[in-house]
Amino acid sequence: MRELPVTLFELKDGEIATVHSFKGDMELQSRLVEMGILPGISIRRIKTAPMNGPIELKVRDYHVSLRQNDARNILIK
Amino acid sequence: MISSVQTSWAALLGNPNSGKTAIFNLLTGLNHKVSNYPGVTVEKKTGLARFAAGDQFNILDLPGTYSLTPESMDERIVTEQVLNWIHGHEPPDVIISVVDATNLSRNLYLTSQLADLGIPIVVALNMMDMVKQDLNINYEKLANDLDVAAIIPMSATEKWGQSELLESIKKSMNSNVVENPFPIFLNDDISNALKPLEEMLKTQFRYNNRLAKAQALRLITRKSTVEIYTEMSANGMIVDAAFKKSLQEKRVAAVDILENTGIKHRIMEATLRYEWLDSVLATRNINIESNIEEYNYSEKLDKLLTHKWVGPAIFVTILYFIFQSIFTWATVPMDWINSGVAWIGNQVLNLMSAGMLRDLLVEGIIAGVGSILIFLPQILILMFFMTLLEDTGYMARVAFMMDSFMKMIGLHGRSVLPLMSGYACAIPGIMSTRTIDSWKERLITILILPLMSCSARLPVYTLMIGAFIPATHVFGFFNLQGLILVIMYFLGTVTAFVLAKVFSLFIKVEGKSSFVMELPPYRIPLWISVFSQVLNRGKLFVVNAGKIILSISIVLWFLASYPKVDETNGNENPIRTSYAGKIGQAIEPVIKPLGFDWKLGIGLITSFAAREVLVSTMATIYNIESNLDNIVQLKDAMKSDKNPETGKPLYTPLVAISLMVFFVFAAQCMATFAIVRNETNSWKWPLFMIIYMNGLAFGASFIVYQGGLLLGYG
Predict the structure, then answer these.
(1) Residue B167 and residue B201 in one domain
(2) CB-based contact (8 Å) between B96 and chain A?
């Protein structure tokens, strides 16, 4: 059993989760919610870029990438 | 009073990757004003479209944006425009809101924001060809829900739906918008918090209820919206200091009230709007959650294309292929242009009687302009590939794969596209850095971008390589000429990366970096869109370069032809005693350690206007020097030029390499500095660029030439 909620950073490639809340960087969360990544929405982590780069997600009907550090600020359940 | 018939006009707005540019090109054909530098999404482009009845209207293509909050430069441009419209400065007759049908909820978010403005809206529901199952939407009902005039399903790629779109645009242009109440439910807490700002906007700008609510909501949600309002004097609106102060105070008060009731103000607008939008879509049987597990074709392709090891390898292969093709494919049309120019020159020689005018035409204008025209095929090929990579969606994958590396050297994944555009021309590259949100990363990208070898250097490289580097093969299959060219590009690129890291350590600018980037589905590009972008680029090169080169060629021809030498003194080189020759000789001592003589010195001076001018300068010089029997081949003339003192060849492969290295680094293009001045809003950065780049150029050339001499090449 893992403790809830965890962050998107800890989600493994291929796993699905629901966005719970945000912490930290305000600019980032403003940007994410405008793209429809809001508390309650499902996301699937697809992959990690080469050289341990950004991660790729599927949310709503599109694919989006963000840096791993930013993923630490998105809490999921 | 002069009465003029005002052409009606439409504004094109939409998310990035919604196919907005494709629709623009589809509606306007090749009939648009070449804005100075057509970067893919950054520039403001206008075009003329035609209704079925034959009457015309203007279309303004605005940068792609996800919302009307001004975060990046692109969004700022859009938000400022929209604010101007609602304040009565030439609002469009209709807004065409481009929506990607495969990605409805996120795309309609912007549409719903636009619907508050009181301007008629037609939704172009694009990419219908990519929708797998029948969407089964009642478009009229959905249009009614969203308060837009019409929703027109279409496909820019398959070219259907545009006549319905045009019809609907025409109808909406002559209609009035009925003011409906703000559609989103606001609870009492939020309503009360909005009130003071709402009232203030109504009094100050005469907003109606709906618009006032929408703008108040946005002002509270995003601080950057406040800035747009307070900086409005710069946008043609005068607001006094009292208004600014009051606006800020009212916002802070509203934020306090909301936070006390547990509402997170920073995500307020998006939360409310998406909740409303998702419920509207749900009542029309559109489910946004269902597709998250779907494994689509783009994801399948990405298994390979963004794979940990295979992905970067494919990228490098594509790059190598592009640069090789520039050399191999372009040779045929280049030969045509070359013989065409020679033919014209010789025709003029035969038709006109000898005299000053003929000399000017043949030696100055035809030789100068012709020597530049020859590089058009290479520039077009490079631009074609860049546009193709962008329009297929591959460029976003490159940014995704390279971000880790880019971050390491102080840049951003989004720096990759501007830097790659820099291979074509620094100017559109610098303009496309606007998509980088963080100012520091954007500034560093701009500063190092001119080190990417642009197409204006290509003529110089090509001339030097063609004349002095043998076309032998090394390691079996690498063409030595192609290899040297790749090395030159490599040298500039690697230096750019090293300097980016150095600059990132020393430049202290505020701003946090984030990387939220959409990876659009792979798409087959709309060919008319690709070709119109390539054509614009080519046209720009010919017109801009042509203007500069034509005038410089004429001036140079005079400087190089006068004073005329005494005919009886036949052994004297006529250029040497001319004005240009004297200038060249004056700077020769400075450039001699780099291996350059006074002729190249003249070229270096003229190339400060634009790099490719070096080639036309040399062409003009050698044509004047020769006895005018026919147009000389510059390549051959330079190869056979002898040092009058030693009798050895004047230019050696070592000189050629030293000159190429000089061109890799030197800051020579005035237009670039003008653009950097605009984008950074100060002369500080362009000056810094001129100093560091020319210092680098001199040092590197010095090391190459002197080192080469020591090693016995030369």
Answers:
(1) no
(2) no
In B280-339, the residues whose Cβ lies within 8 Å of chain A are 288-289, 291-293, 298-299, 302, 306-309, 311-312
Q: Count of CB atoms within 10 A of residue B338's CB?
A: 18
Is residue B663 situated within a structural domain?
no
The strand pair at A55-59 and A42-48 is best described as antiparallel
- Could you list the residue range(s) of the whole structural domain that residue B219 is in? 188-292
Question: In terms of domains, do B161 and B211 share one?
Answer: no
B144 occurs within a structural domain: yes
- Residues B338, A20: Cα–Cα separation, whole Å: 66
Radius of gyration from C-alpha coordinates of chain B:
29
Q: How many domains does chain B have?
A: 3
Q: Which domain-ending residue is among B593, B617, B651?
A: B651
- Per residue in B190-229, is it b (16+ CB within 10 Å) or e — as a string? beebbebbbebbbebbebeebbbbbbbbbbbbbbbbbebb
Q: Do A36 and B105 touch (CB under 8 A)?
A: yes
Angle at which helices B458-468 and B376-392 cross, to 10°? 120
CB nearest to B288's CB, from A28, A49, A60: A60
Same domain, B140 and B268: no
**N residues, chain A:** 77
Residue identified by tokens 């600059």 is B503
Whether B482 is covered by a domain: the verdict is no
Q: Is B548 exposed, middle or buried (0-12, 13-18, 19+ CB in 10 A)?
A: buried
Cα A60 to Cα A43: distance, rounded to the nearest angstrom: 8
Mean pLDDT of B657-670: 92
| pLDDT tens by residue, B489-520 | 999 999 999 999 999 998 877 666 667 889 99
Q: For residue B583, count CB atoms less than 10 angstroms from its CB and return exposed for 0-12, middle for 13-18, buried for 19 or more.
A: middle
Between strands B121-126 and B150-153, the pairing is parallel
pLDDT of residue A1: 45
Residue B43 has pLDDT above 70, yes or no: no
Give me the number of domains chain A comprises.
1
Q: What is the token pair recorded at B677?
A: 């001045």
Nearest to B103 among A33, A38, A60 (CB): A60
Backbone angles phi, psi at B617, to 5 degrees: -60, -50
Q: B652 near B714, Cβ under 8 Å?
A: yes
Give the CA distances from residue B566 to residues B443, B578, B625, in Å, rounded to whole numbers and listed in that order: 55, 12, 14
Q: How many CB atoms lie within 10 A of CB B80?
A: 17
Task: Residue B446: count other Cβ atoms within 10 Å of its Cβ.
Answer: 25
Alpha-carbon gap, residue B169 to B175, rounded angstroms: 10
Residues B15 and B148 in one domain: yes
The domain containing residue A16 runs over which residues?
6-76
Interface of B with A in 221-250 (CB under 8 A): 221-222
| H helix intervals, B434-565 | 439-448, 458-468, 480-506, 527-540, 546-561
For the purposes of burial, counting CB atoms within 10 Å of the CB of B474, is it exposed (0-12), middle (13-18) or buried (19 or more)? exposed
Instruction: State the residue for tokens 């150095």.
Output: B502
Residue with tokens 């110089």: B460
Residues B148 and B22 in one domain: yes
Note whether B30 and B164 are same-domain residues: yes
Most confident residue range from A38-47, B513-522, B602-611: A38-47
- pTM to 2 decimal places: 0.81
The rounded distance, in Å, linking the Cα atoms of B61 and B33 is 11
Residue B610 belongs to a domain? yes
| Among B179, B216, B223, B217, residue whose Cα is nearest residue B198 | B216
The pLDDT value recorded for residue B151 is 96
Structure tokens at B65: 């944006």
